[in-house]
Please model this.
Amino acid sequence: MIPTLVVAALMLASPQAAATGGDAAGADRLTPPETGSIPVAFVITPGATVIDFTGPWEVFQDAVVPGRGTTSADTRPFRLFTVGQSREAVRASAGLQIVPDYTFADAPEPKVIVVPAQGSSPEMIAWIKKASAKADLTMSVCVGSFILAEAGLLDGRAATTHHEFLNQFAREFPNVDVRRDVRYVEGPRVATAAGLTSGVDLALRVVERYFGAQVAERTAAYMEHESDAWRARRGYWDPSTPGVVVARAPEVRPVLRGLDPVLLAGGKEVEGNASISLDREGYRYAFATEENRKRFEADPEHYAIQFKGACAFMALGGAPPGSGDPDRFVVHNGSIYIFATENCRASFVASPERYLKPQATTPGL
Model:
């Protein structure tokens, strides 16, 4: 989960420039039809995070454009519908049950596509690729950005995602220029919001790009949304050339901030030497001595990270690679575990035996 802009165009027409002048203009403007509706498709499959799609849904349903035509479809221009794998009911986060309006096989062509955090499927990816080619804008919220990246929409572009998954995003999609500390990243036809409530801000920004700042302001006021984080200055405009991938070195993360993993697994915390290091599965391990490095190389499974960024409950089914932060680590029975979030770490610390199969401890030093 974007036309080229030259420097001069950026100075005159970027969202940052538009933010100081009021309405969106120039390259960042989305052109609505003179009358009639703008179809907006919300991709919904099992596990979709509720606020990721209900937040933008509320924005688009509340947007009113006075003086635009004579019908409800003119003054309330966004026509909203859901698209799923089938028309069978799906359960979003916390069990909310939704029956999709359409399937990927029969959905009408949208002008805006909203992709929240959820799982993906080949059918979903194929539909997003096809539908986005004719849409005005395809936007993701939270880790819905992973789906846009999987569909190839973010190759060579800037994008963002939920702050706890930025590192995983960078590792899994090295062709994406991952932006941190922004509310959203946008380009002429693709946009990504950070996490959860940032989808509200990006949707308000889409309203502004279609109908101007006053309409977006009225929408925010009606919603009693007091934040002005939807304004362009809080986002990042992506000037990258579509399809052009900038070569970047793979991101390699230091393990446990240089603490020697061999000694750490043995119960001691000793600073690793950056000059005595090796890379393994996207992580850089630094060792206190050459002897410790050799011990690691001889049997890395005793000393390397056992699961990387998994929430603790995922260990039950075999934890996949994830967005583990070396600052969020636990040494348990001589093995190192790192976690994506503090909640995951706390869950493991509270009851590690619930998540791990019985295993031998690392031999003592």
Summary: Residues 198-211 form the longest helix (14 residues).
